[in-house]
Amino acid sequence: MNDTSVAARVPLRQVWPEALVARYRAAGYWRDETMPGFLCDRAERFADDVAVIGGDVRWTYAQLWREAGRIGAGLLALGLRPGDRVLVQLGNVPEFIAVVCGLFRAGMVPVYVLPAHRITELAHFARKAEASAYITAGLHEGFDHRALARALRAEVPAVAHVVIAGEAEEFIALSALAGEPATLPADPDPRSVAFLQISGGSTGLSKLIPRTHDDYIYSFRASNELCGIDHDSVYMVALPAAHNFPMSSPGWLGALHAGARVVLSPGPGPDAAFPLIARERVTAVGLVPPLALLWADAAPKSTHDLSSLRVVQVGGAKLVPEAANRVIAGLGCTLQQVFGMAEGLVNYTRLDDPAEIIVNTQGRPISPDDEVLVVDDLGNSVPDGASGYLLTRGPYTIRGYHNDDAANARSFTADGYYRTGDVVQRLPGGYLVVQGRATDHINRAGEKISAEEIEDHLLANPGVFDAVVVSVPDEYLGERSCAFIIPRGERPRPPALKAWMRERGLAAFKVPDQIVFVDAFETTAVGKISRRELRAQLREKYLSQQKES
Ligand code: AMP
Ligand code: DBH
What we know:
By secondary structure, the chain is α/β, with parallel strands linked by helices.
């Protein structure tokens, strides 16, 4: 990578108005802390305390710091430079945390890819982020990521380096990285972008979310306080560690900031998690609603001692009150509802809130300086208790996506509010109840899927004349995706169509769960209705037919 190509990249920026910067600093939210800065401090203060537990690994804070230094210096030795963007795709393994911390130490910018993502998503992230490297597993859950790396190199040759945690084949092994710690750069500017998180993609393709050291550290440091995470806590990562929720609310980064222990569960189900909870005396964990229900059903029958669990956080999708009661009864510990987004704003029920609030609301914002607006179609504020669109800005909510003018024009108001796309009700005291959404996406057990993105793929199939994708309620997933398809000629077989979708190199969770063939979509008298109306109409019709049968 030469200097010209570096200069040509779209700069990473996240800028708040200067008056607000002064305010956030004066209020003590932004403290000039950086990721490598706090990790270095903890490595000194908690050197011999256990930081990360996963598989056969138990790293102390000092060991994690050294491992991160080896990886960071090794990447510099390959020719990567501070500021380079690096795709990271690893499961819940200690190497994931070491790689992310190593990139922080080298001043490089991780781009968090989920283990489920495939070539279509990966190539999109590589192009949008202008990534120069890809760090991934050899085999992960039976899938060969080296094959994915080859496909990526063929599609986006600018991704010059591939590093594999495991059997590397023609690539570079993570374990072989080596370099001089003295080559690692000085601490970055706390206001600079530390990494790119990904949005669930409520409309169209996933977008890249630039988060700064200052803003992100504030969000997990303040989360620690609201979630009771301190030096004695043991925090379990049960959801994919690259997700914003288990990373920062307060997540494994919050846990590391507190000097606590992070336990990585290889899978989200009770089978993988319960023995680890018992062995490591886990005190807190974050789950999505369907998992929380699964855990709540399994816990009373389990032979594992789960008595160390103090807080179970549930978020990512709506937890309805009946489900909240089941979670409390089944797990016998404090439930904390979490309504957050990778773009910023996170709401929590407080640990000492009355049961009525914990069961019926999705919490209230972290910060006194989180500005929340609930507005109608015309943008006018609605009274407390009425439903409206949620807009927000504040000390840890982004002002813009990376490298995406069209999305920015859509998703942010002129005065810097992020349009969350959620429809909420605000109660006195600032508690929010999520009512629904303004955009057409499917929230499938916490994974957001854009209807538009899936329709675009389906339309590329020669057997599909037209396709409309909607969310329908699902007993296990909360919501599942249902594709209404007008065939072109002979009907394709649903299993073949699903297999064809997977072969397009899409994350498996995006393949429609259900396919319904129809002869035509209804149109209005004028003969034309919007995709939005069409989706709403098909969904309604489907739901009323379900009720009748
Ligand atoms: P993303 O922007 O991809 O990080 O996804 C964030 C979105 O997930 C939010 O805007 C909500 O639509 C949804 N979400 C997260 N937590 C909750 C929750 N507790 N209840 C309902 N929806 C949620
Ligand atoms: O769904 C989310 O994106 C989410 C949920 C809870 C999130 O980003 C978070 C907490 O930080």
